[in-house]
């Protein structure tokens, strides 16, 4: 390759890598695997060094991502450089030499810089491009483990990695009910959770911050205590531990134990709940490390270690096309079982059609597979390259015609049939939820799998899972115990309250509160509700013309008639026993704000209903009381209550009503 050819290839690599970085950092999506990215990056660096061509826009000359436009931008007190890296354990040992060091996890999340003044959190800023980041201070209090106040009262700047654990990531994906495609990995989800305007999103997703570096402590003239803290990397982390921060798992190393310590991490990472893409080796002596200075891009006091992924050759036996509730059909490689990082692996996501075309896949091809970051199975290389794979022309679930979409060069397969059963996952999720049929142990992932396998098409099918027993037991992630737990939960829901059945049907505009109103009005007789016309329905408190039409439209739809008929054959609806006049009979309550004496709103609603009252979601002229512990707040419900003359009471006031 001559210099002209090298320049052309460098420009090509930069274009590919910049697009991948933009997608990964600013759009929270992936268009190539980490393995492929590292491979192209290494090729780019090698060509630049060999031919002495260093473009200003090259990723080897720039670090990080551009700050998003919708967050305020902040310049860091000290620029943040990325670390040089290696996959060779001996290189890591040679880097340390005769010095003492500290080896820690290199966490895979979003880097955050925190500043404290006078013992209080002052600011939180993302890494950004290393010099300018995004101000996410409003979201920091929503993290699960960041101290808002600390005992140290001086100037303090530290760095950490915002992460979402694997277990929380799985839980979030399992509980998703917004009809969107599942999140790809914890890193992307964490970045999207932190870099937005609503702290409630951050809080709901259980974002943690793990500190890995103390950047600045005190002023120019440091106290003896501050100098002591700043002497070694270990003392810095110990100091931060004492202040209440969660610090990265770290271990002291020297030339005699560094290889054994790397091996310890290699075993621990397999079960560790925090996403990690390698290790970081840091000289323990802070002054010595700083004396080494920096290159144009890397500090010389630390070196990153990327896991050398274990690979294995195998044979591709099948390409499984797995539909999702958004209509996206994902390709999955099924191959002869191989052992990687101590576990058996027989399948790996292929992500999209573009990656399959790049790999030139075909059934029977010899392929190389690995676990990205020792966790996620991936296809690294196709040794045969038959390029004989076929894109299915019909959806594997409903048989409707598929369509290939091209989004900025990334080809994906979709089923556009609006009635495809896989798209009814949200309906099934509502059906099994706590306030509906309350079938515990059936997650969104389980529902999706059962739909894909053809086990369930309508709600009644959940009560007929016994006929699929053998197939369920043999499926990945299941077994006889899991099967029995599901069947027990399903059978426990057969005898249920009328309101739960009404709520479970997914009638537009009907939630738990209105379902209870309807059940109470029709004396737990769902057949009477099914026959009621709009005039009867509008005569019920809280049911206006819009809801009445929605209810009537649902129960007169031919498909829904069959769904309800089939379901009712599987259920026994209990009648709620009527008692004498109760303390809250005839009263309607609206609840808003945080609660102090009740675990949640459901608990308070139950107390109201047990005493003969009912609840509504909004304040109206029919509301008797608005329960809000902050009686003087300027919330919209408080304002509405005052306009209508509805009395606002606290929990204590409410408790007095039922004594």
Description:
This protein is α+β, with helices and mostly antiparallel strands and 659 residues long. It has 6 domains: 3-51, Helix Hairpins (Orthogonal Bundle), CATH 1.10.287; 73-306, D-amino Acid Aminotransferase, Chain A, domain 1, CATH 3.30.470; 311-415, Nucleic acid-binding proteins (OB fold (Dihydrolipoamide Acetyltransferase, E2P)), CATH 2.40.50; 421-493, DNA polymerase, domain 1; 496-574, 5' to 3' exonuclease, C-terminal subdomain (DNA polymerase, domain 1), CATH 1.10.150; 588-657, 3-Layer(aba) Sandwich (Rossmann fold). The chain contains 24 helices and 24 strands. Strands 12, 13, 14, 15, 16, 17 and 18 form a 7-stranded antiparallel sheet that branches. Strands 2-11-10-3-9 form a 5-stranded mixed sheet. Helix 12 crosses helix 13 (444-452). The chain is globular and about 85 Å long. It starts with a helix and ends with a helix.
